[in-house]
Design goal:
The chain is an alpha/beta fold. The protein folds into two domains: 2-6 and 259-376, Aspartate Aminotransferase, domain 1, CATH 3.90.1150; 14-252, Aspartate Aminotransferase, domain 2 (3-Layer(aba) Sandwich). 39% of the residues lie in helices and 13% in strands. The chain contains eleven helices and twelve strands. The strands form three sheets. A seven-stranded mixed beta sheet has the order 2-8-7-6-5-3-4, with helices on both faces. Strand 3, helix 4 (99-110) and strand 4 (115-118) form a beta-alpha-beta unit. The chain binds pyridoxal-5'-phosphate. Pyridoxal-5'-phosphate (PLP) is lined by residues 70-72, 98, 100, 145, 149, 174, 176-177, 197, 208, 324. The site of pyridoxal-5'-phosphate has 13 residues, from helix 3.
Length: 385
Amino acid sequence: PVYLDNNATTALDPTVLQTMMPWLTNNYGNAASNSHSFGWEAQRAVEQARMSIAHAINAASPSDIIFTSGATEANNLALNGLQLPPGRSHIITPMIEHRSVLACCVRLAAQGTPITYLRPQSDGIVSLNELNNALRPETGLVSVMAANNETGTLQKIEEIGALCRDRGILFHTDATQAFGKIALDVQRMNISLAAFSAHKIYGPKGVGALYVNTADERLRLSPQIVGGGQEHGLRSGTLNVPGIVGFGRAAEIAMINLPSELVRLSGLRNRLKQALFDTVPNISINGHPHECLPGVLNIAFSGVDASSLLLELPDIALSSASACSSKHQTPSHVLQAMGASVAQIQASVRISIGRFNNEKDIVWAGGRLIDAVSLLRSMAPIPQK
Ligand code: PLP
């Protein structure tokens, strides 16, 4: 089987597992135990990982990194935890955000927070003009994801950061899909808060982080999980030392490989895209054709039911909606917001290529995909143009 669902989750890199192993076995100390070497060693390992994450995004200080159980929790801490000053409670976010952001917004709205949901352009990009027009004197936070999980489309994070800087607005970005794949610089991009997850970058599941620009005094977060006061009181609970160590190592590896993987994965994606466009009629790309994550291709095969297509290809891991939302049997809110018809959404498949895929995988999967599409189309009651 070939795994092409790397936006849902990634395989644990064997090097990462190796780095984690001592912390899963002999070095079982609690990072908060400060009276013996078991605790000190665990704490040192956690701080090393914190430095690696901070370094990867050019954070001013390692203490800007708060470890969480993943990006869902990081987004919850950012959005539910942020104490916006009176008169600045308005939040702007696009309709294409991950559900962990949108669900927070729905809850905040129910509590009286004014929220504006921006519709993206049909290519999935949030227009700066639209964002500008949505700003109000009481806008306190803009939350825009760096890269979309379904389409891979990249947002103009640096420009949005600059706009927020000019207007004195805080800026949160869900950088879960972008981290480790494209360059991120929280200082240059004027990012106040950012969410990350280890399992999207060949690290373990169940660990992530929230970047908090602690130098910004306007940023007041109230913890969502209270208890022993770990992570500066922002996230209580015994630290997941093996997970955090693995996350740190995964981030280091991702940063070392970032430039070469950007080229290699884009090459594989373009090759697959070309093969599909050369042989399969009536297909189209969902999302921006170039401004996107290197390994992601979201394609609508007109007239083909994506779930039937996936059933035809049980040995290829693909996704017909985002893994996180496939439980919701509703058509993708992302493609819907971009203006896609229900028929187009039902015909769409996400292919996400990753570190452990090679050219052979792509050629083989491409061939299988082409055959399956033509088979399903030949069985369709209405002949395709
Ligand atoms: N945000 C985005 C853009 C994602 O793709 C995901 C992945 O499912 C998440 C947030 C949630 O991350 P986690 O699985 O770490 O909670």
